[in-house]
Amino acid sequence: MRHILSLLLENESGALSRVAGLFSARGYNIESLTVAPTEDPTLSRMTVVTSGSEEVIEQITKQLNKLIDVVKVFDLQEGRHIERELMLVKVRAEGKDREELKRTADIFRGRIIDVTDRTYTIELTGPRDKLDAFLEAIDRGLILETVRTGASGIGRGEWILRI
Amino acid sequence: MRLTGAEITIQCLQEEGVEYVFGYPGGAVLYIYDALFNQDKVKHILVRHEQAALHAADAYARATGRPGVALVTSGPGVTNAVTGIATAYMDSIPMVVITGQVPTPAIGLDAFQEVDTVGITRPCVKHNFLVKNVEDLAATIKKAFYVASSGRPGPVLVDIPKDISQHVAEFSYPKSVSLRSYAPVTKGHSGQIKKAVQMLMEARRPMIYAGGGVILGDAAPALTKLVKQLGFPCTNTLMGLGAFPGTDPQFVGMLGMHGTYEANLAMQHCDVLLAVGARFDDRVIGNPQHFYSEGRRIIHVDIDPSSISKRVRVDVPIVGNINDVLDEMQKIVDATTARPEPAALKAWWNQIGQWRERDCLRYDRASAIIKPQFVVEKLYEVTGGDAIITSDVGQHQMWAAQYYKFDKPRRWLNSGGLGTMGFGLPAAMGAQLAHPDATVACVTGEASIQMCIQELSTCKQYHLPVKIINLNNRYLGMVRQWQQILHGNRYSESYMDALPDFVRLAESYGHVGVRVESPADVEPALREAFALKDRVVFMDFLTDQTENVFPMVKAGQGLTEMLLGAEDL
Q1: Can you give the pTM of this predicted structure?
Q2: Which of A17, A40, A66, A162 best probes binding to B when mutated, by most B CB atoms within 10 angstroms?
Q3: ipTM (interface predicted TM)
């Protein structure tokens, strides 16, 4: 099953590679990994999307907690949460495709952020499924480039991950 | 007090009460060696290869419980040390490793003797640091000692670039250290501990399985007291030998791949299993599916939450300092009148007695060729069971574990997790320095000993009178055994050809060398050797070439699917 793990870690060089190294050394899956400093510059917030049985996810959580640079780990799957990912997609936009692509982008609440005679660059945010659905909704042959950030996650309501 | 980084490094070691640093100098650590030269509190032991520095520091830690300290230079110094670091990591040994690094402006430029030390060692240390500012140096070393020796212990590495060791800063050694991201658990959950004791009292076929964590946590006395009071059978893992006395009637021997028949069967058929400081690894329980096939309730006490429910699901997990958890269990046991049903326990011991009658460690004692088991038995007798025994890896290691009965913790030093050939001799040096008056013997084989044999020179320099028991069968014995049993007698590259004359080799280093070729000479030779209290004696025993270690559970098989002797092949 797919799990979104939220981590607070020391914003130190090497912390990212400790986490990434743990996943590769122990053979855990990584679907995506995002990291950036928080409002407290000494801390980074990381979101790792992984998959595995309950036992594997439990081991991953324990092993992450064991890393000295990891301050906190939380499996967002344990509560209600929000997941968002940003995608930039460059498409061939000529002739009748131009209007069609614009319409589809609107339906998905995407924004066209760069335009040339022959291309659009569309910005889209949402959960992974929505971004996947957009890519399926447009003619695959028109896609020139996609850039996805991987998911960022946060708990709903009063549930807060901080030290 | 303003000091250079190098002086700060040595001051920190003094503050930590470090007795010995095991190391080897080189370009990137020259300032640190200079600072070492100007004082005499911290003594330096110059090894002949960095791997040995790490093993010696590691064994010093195993023998004393205090963190071992090693100091090596950048580049090849580090890469040579990696085997020793990984060895300590796999066995959770507290160690602080100080490594030199190229000057900060040169980092990343493929400078002479540069490696990414923090990167190379990351998967085999508990933590590591690259010091980029001399102001941070003292606090970093303080953290290193704290992290290495608290929680589940392990090696911590501090990488110091050469310019940092030259820069000057105000020195003050922090009194305490706290890390917001690191707070090891100490006290176990009281509710869980109560539940565990209740489960033990309800057991009809109880079993206690103790590992290296008991020794690391200095909990052998607490374990022994509890087991004696409960009257339950107890087994120790390879790493746990000495956690419960090997000569006690309640001890059923080591368990696992080369464990005793009775220990493995009791593991499989017990109804309540108390696992203490052990981790159910593949060499211990064999195939986990097979292990599951027999239902039993499991209580697992460990300081590391990630050791619990890793290979085996447990019913009562208890995360905590083992000594504290066992103390709390003891208090509950003392306060209650509940005891396991005596008739059930008696029937269980009868069953174990029947298993014991298989006499699984029997061997041909009348052999005209020296049997390796016989040498270990005689070693046990001659040393009165009171020596510190180090070993390398292979058949000799298993025979030492099976036939030398360890009654006390920190007497059996071997590389259990990583299985590092070459560990034994440098480990004996570290143990001898830790306990100058103790009898220290390295049980080894002709293949393993050659992996760090250069350390005979270090033994000479520092007058470390260790005794080397070389069980020389002219084969990579354990490889040969697997090839015989699992690879159709195809002995691919497992014969040790062109062996040196070990007697003359030992003599050339200034030691005593003895060759023993007949069973009748084994005991007299050992007595003579151990009487030479101030000399290294290299004893080369020419043993039976085809002897195998039994019992044996083949890799991937169930714990009860044991080969008990040549008749099972």
Answers
A1: 0.96
A2: A66
A3: 0.92
